[in-house]
Amino acid sequence: MVVRFNCNEGFTRVGSESAQCYHFGWSPQPPICKENVKPCPALPIISHGRVTGESKAVFQHGDLLEVHCEISFALYGSKIIECVDGEWAPLPSCVEEVRTCRPPPTIKNGYFVNGESSTYRHGDTVEYRCQKIYIIIGTNPAKCLHGQWEIPSCVVNQQSCTRPWYADFQPTVQTTKPFKTDQFANYRCGSNLHQTKCINGLWFPVPRCEGMVCMLCTSL
């Protein structure tokens, strides 16, 4: 069971807008409603990482930023962080990834255009292109992740995406209209924000929140 929270007029929610009941209780923890919330005065410092987003002297409660790791470092945690009552959360970390990738593979009806190295580090990219009448779907440029290539494919026709109605999928875009190819949608898993892209009728990456079925709930 998923419960959503709203604050009375004049108060601001601090914490997740929803919580789900699991066998161990509610996750994430229910939010609180505060009359005054603090801004975030500076960008967070993440070792071997960088933060991107709108440049501001002061960030307000609810502002979002995106975290990227340096080449050879893997992101552990949420890619999107939020200013929550004066603090950035949840802060991820960038951990060195020693596994490397071999030269990128060939794909049906397509080819890569800038793969000249014999070894690729975590985070390195290679661009793919499709032959005529085909369009590319999936991750492009392809990316070396944890020693494996995340590669696209080439297909003929384009299709739109329908809004997923998974029980654990709570999108921030409230619409019943189909999503067009190359259109992005943000969705929330507990307190973490994620992004997915409509490509030829399919979502990449597949929007999914990992969780367990509720067996016993504690009271709010």
TrEMBL record:
GO terms for biological process: complement activation. One of its GO terms (molecular function) is complement component C3b binding. Keywords: Disulfide bond, Signal, Sushi. It comes from the Eukaryota. Coiled coil: none annotated. SUPFAM superfamilies: Complement control module/SCR domain (SSF57535). The keyword Repeat does not apply. Disulfide bonds join C40-C83, C101-C144. Residues 1-35, 38-96, 99-156 form the Sushi domain. The keyword Glycoprotein does not apply. Pfam families: Sushi. GO terms for cellular component: extracellular space. This is Complement factor H-related protein 5-like.
